[in-house]
Amino acid sequence: MTRPILIKGGRVIDPSRRSDGIADVYLAEGRVASVGHGIVGEDGCQVIDATGKVVAPGLIDLHVHLREPGFEDLETVATGAMAAAAGGFTAVCAMPNTDPPQDNQGTIGFVISQAQKAGKARVYPVGTISLGQKGEKLSEFGELMSAGAVAVSDDGKPIMNSHLMRTALEYAKTFGLPIADHCEEITLAHAGAMHEGIVATRLGLKGIPAAAEEIHVARDIILSELTGGQIHLCHMSTRGSVALIRRAKDMGLNVSAEVTPHHLTLTHHACEGYNTNAKMNPPLREEADVEALQQALKDGTIDVIATDHAPHHYDAKEREFDEAPNGILGLETAFGLAVSQLVRPGLLSLSDLLYRMSTRPAQLFKLPGGSLATNAPADVVILDPDVEWTVDPRAFFSKSRNTPFGGRTVRGRAEVTIVRGRVVHDRAGA
Amino acid sequence: MTKAPALGKDLVGLEHLSAEQIRLILETAEAFKEVSERPIKKVPALRGKTIVNLFFEASTRTRTSFEFAEKRLSADTVNVASSGSSVSKGETLVDTARNLEAMRIDMVVIRHPSSGSAEFLGNRIRSNVINAGDGKHEHPTQGLLDLLTLRDKFGKLEGLKVAICGDVTHSRVARSNIWGLRKLGAQVAVCGPASLVPRDIAALGVEVIPHIDDAIRWADALNVLRLQLERMTSGFIPSLREYNRVFGVTRERLERAQKDLVVMHPGPMNRGVEIDSDVADGPFSVILPQVTNGVAVRMAVLYLLAGGGPDWQHQGGGE
Ligand SMILES: [Zn+2]
Ligand SMILES: [Zn+2]
């Protein structure tokens, strides 16, 4: 049994109940026991003074790559779950492009048991849509779900076969399983290394046009309309996608979308000098896209921030731009970037941000957490939204270092992260 | 002795050079032209310097031109070609760079299929790096020799109208020409099938002329790009035959324009595709002077990067 925890005097923000005010939070038996004033904990409980800090439901990331099994030199479930905890996340959803892929009960079960052993952030595996992520045959959604998968996705690759996507959306309805799609019309994006635009033209790199994402987004929306299935659009990057999603939501379709901290922060100019740490898929786009994505997050067109945490080895990024792998780390910089980009300029309130990083993600994938209501799981984060700090990749808990944000000064950081009523990260005591 | 404005450590492209730096290279090249006309075509300017020509792509013309330039400056040179070297055995570019660094060579001339590879190498070794063509990015010495050739022909570049014709999207020659010509005050247009011209190329300060006849009518000089034959198999154009009919620089087209025009080509040419033989070999062509100027420009670049000033004729002998 873990000791009860009494978090005293913090500004408690619970987006699930639209509450925001100074209060104490008492956690016992792995649950939120009470939130209120002047709470007295039982003898021997752990008391954390949160004066001047924010207490909130732990952050939840619907999109990470933890690389285990298969690529343990880049990240493991344990190091990824620790990086998550350090970033204020109490739960993450692990994408299935492992080796072997998470297309069977055994691999799903393995990831869950690795997460339990690690005992840091919760890790929810995402199963594949197609066997071996080959885009040919459906995986056994029912089996994956009973093993613990919370959604299905072939992320890393799009589902190009529209018939397969249609049947996946229909079949998943039986289980209420969300389908997350990586939107990329690959015949159009073929061999592209960055956003198609003036920077790619100058650098002589093959571009990926915004249309490659938008065509796929449009198709998925149309298939969602056809089937009534729940489609979750991964890592949206263009203003055109935003317009398509807005229209879909106006029509009342079962469509949700995510955006990464980096697509809310950087443009294709970050690739100047052939910076491979700015190489990702979808690529960083233009200023107008960044603005549209920020606005979409504000008005709810885009539901959540997800990191697409994608560890890569130093050597793999230390090479020619067109040969370097896609993706960057996200877990340990997400909150600081989001506060700096969205909250401090006044675009989102802190409560709005926490809704998009905790409550809303929990709702979309039907996960526990995202709330401080009585009896909610004791997954809580204590944040300092004002502290200024400089990103130092060498200090990451992740096994990898691939970030374009090294040396960047941001505001806002997780101080204490509590999962299942147990402190899994304490910056002061780390 | 006046100290010349530095070019910096590397020559990666013309985008980041100033007009003065480009003019300095052209002036220096002008002086070096004379060396190639001597019975003994050698000056001691780079005596004792070691240069590696690192070619990850086949290129007889550019490599030979660099080699002549290096030898005429009395440098010691080694050629490393991709076939049969560690390069083709999967050694990474960064390992190649470290090995070069360990051998304490003075300069590296690199040709590589990936855009940015020259800058990548330059950022990782102390030796001077000269880009001899990196992917679709830049081919600065080609751009410089084109500038020199045009300047020889017209006396100046200010106000000159140059049309770059063909596969602009995949051309490093086009990019280096655009930067160099714009910086020295020329007007630049590009002409080619829209499937081979970047959508946003106008942002580089060039005009887009869709039809080759209009480009010929507009221009004082044409720079006709080589059409890589794989553009057809990868679906950018339907056929070489049609390309020649719609975009080829032919004698009929030039005659129809009824004006004197200079025609350049970076080589190697696909005769009967982007350029017809009677144009390539005709009175408008400056393709052979381009080759001659290539050696002089490369001598100038090597010399200036090695730290030499405009007084090269009086130094080197005793050192
Ligand atoms: Zn993806
Ligand atoms: Zn992903």
What is this structure, in a nutshell?
The complex is a heterodimer of chains A (430) and B (319). Chain A has 430 residues and is of the alpha/beta class.
CATH architecture of the largest domain in chain A: Alpha-Beta Barrel
- Please, what is the average pLDDT of chain A? 97
Q: What can be said about the biggest beta sheet of chain B?
A: 5 strands, parallel
Our estimate of the beta-strand percent of chain A is 15-25%
**Largest sheet report of chain A:** 8 strands, mixed
For the biggest β-sheet of chain B, the strand order reads 7-6-5-8-9
> Based on CA inertia axes, which overall geometry of chain A fits?
globular
Helix content range of chain A: 25-40%
Shape of chain B: globular
Report how far apart the termini of chain B are.
16 Å
Q: What is the H level of CATH, i.e. the homologous superfamily of the largest domain in chain A?
A: Metal-dependent hydrolases
Q: Tell me the radius of gyration of chain A.
A: 20 Å
Q: Assign a percent range to the helix content of chain B.
A: 25-40%
The ligands found in this model are: zinc ion
Taken together, the total number of domains of chain A comes to 2
Q: Give unreliable regions of chain A as ranges.
A: none
How is the secondary structure organized here?
The complex is a heterodimer of chains A (430) and B (319).
Chain A: E1 5-14, E2 19-28, E3 31-36, E4 46-49, E5 54-57, E6 59-64, H1 77-86, E7 89-94, H2 105-118, E8 122-125, H3 141-147, E9 152-153, H4 162-173, E10 179-181, H5 186-189, E11 194-195, H6 198-203, E12 207-208, H7 210-227, E13 231-233, H8 239-250, E14 255-259, H9 287-299, E15 304-305, H10 314-317, H11 334-343, H12 350-364, E16 380-390, E17 409-419, E18 422-426
Parallel strand pairs in A: 1-4, 1-5, 6-7, 7-8, 9-10, 10-13, 11-12, 13-14, 14-15
Antiparallel strand pairs in A: 1-2, 2-3, 5-16, 16-17, 17-18
Helix pairs in contact in A: 1-2, 2-3, 4-7, 7-8, 8-9
Chain B: H1 19-36, E1 50-55, H2 60-72, E2 76-81, H3 93-102, E3 107-112, H4 117-122, E4 128-134, H5 140-154, E5 161-165, H6 172-183, E6 187-191, E7 207-208, H7 212-218, E8 221-224, H8 230-233, H9 240-247, H10 251-257, E9 262-264, H11 277-280, H12 287-305
Parallel strand pairs in B: 1-2, 1-3, 3-4, 5-6, 5-8, 6-7, 8-9
Helix pairs in contact in B: 1-5, 1-12, 2-12, 5-6, 5-12
The complex binds zinc ion (2 copies).
